[in-house]
TrEMBL record:
GO terms for biological process, alphabetical: cell division
Name the record gives this protein: Cell division protein DivIVA
Keywords: Cell cycle, Cell division
Source taxon at top rank: Bacteria
Amino acid sequence: MTPHEVRTRTFAARRRGVDPLQVREFQARVADELTDLHQRFRLLSRENDRLRRALRDWQTMHARECRPPHAGHW
């Protein structure tokens, strides 16, 4: 669910319904929190990718350094 979907969601009117202003305020708060969570998720995904690349590079470097000279395949 996107923040836009939360903000623009409409509900059917009922006889003993809720205050539309309170609903809109609540939707705005939820949408703002979703926006923050989406931004955090993107940031953490980028950091995760960076760490995976760094680990892969380190493993490659370490594997080259640990290989005995003229040993051929392991």
